[in-house]
Amino acid sequence: MSTLLISRLERNPVAQFRLWFDEWAATRPPEVNAMVVATVDPQGQPWARTVLLKQFDDNGFVFFTNRESNKGRHLLAGQRAALYFQWLNNSRQVQIHGRVEMTSAAEDDAYFASRPRESQLGAWASQQSRPLAARDTLEDRFAAYDRQYPDTVPRPPYWGGFRVTPERYEFWQAGAHRLHDRFEYTRDGDDWFIQRLNP
Ligand SMILES: Cc1cc2nc3c(=O)[nH]c(=O)nc-3n(C[C@H](O)[C@H](O)[C@H](O)COP(=O)(O)O)c2cc1C
Description:
Elements: H1 13-25, E1 34-40, E2 46-52, E3 55-57, E4 60-66, H2 70-78, E5 80-87, E6 92-102, H3 105-114, H4 117-125, H5 135-148, E7 159-173, E8 181-188, E9 191-197
Antiparallel strand pairs: 1-2, 1-5, 3-4, 4-7, 5-6, 6-7, 7-8, 8-9
Helix pairs in contact: 4-5
The chain binds flavin mononucleotide.
Flavin mononucleotide (FMN) binds at residues 31, 34, 47, 49-52, 63-66, 69-71, 128-129.
């Protein structure tokens, strides 16, 4: 029987997340930073896709993408997202709801500059989420940008990060007999209200 106790949870959900993230990383999964980002389009249709979590701390959870992609347009219009972490090696999952804002141009430049040249050129070549007539078109665009930027590749103006500032976390840990442990953190002024939920 699982014995996850409220007294053993960190009061700060980022600290709790870090604890579980480190235990997930210790299982050496193929993509330790993978998370699902769910967005809602203007018609109320939910969408979901995997991205890589690049940073998390008390300021929020950051990932990078093309802001003209489907997810980018949903986030710029709706400013809300859900993040989902499926940590099955540990029989755990974590969900986060939050508000979304763009990262600063300085953060975008710094992260873009740290990427391999091929990824930088790919960011120019791919009109993410738009129809692509043929694979050759993409490869031709990649080659054209490779010639256009023989030295430093500048950051495309539409490429950058989003920061999700959590308003709700849910930590789920499998228990025997389907009696799982679920803990919800919700914002309570500057602090967090923690409660156990039915599984
Ligand atoms: C393991 C994995 C990691 C990914 N990481 C990113 C990422 O960090 N940023 C990104 O824009 N797309 C990433 N993708 C691709 C997205 O899942 C998605 O196909 C793409 O961003 C277009 O999504 P959209 O059309 O819903 O905007 C990743 C996919 C996988 C499977």
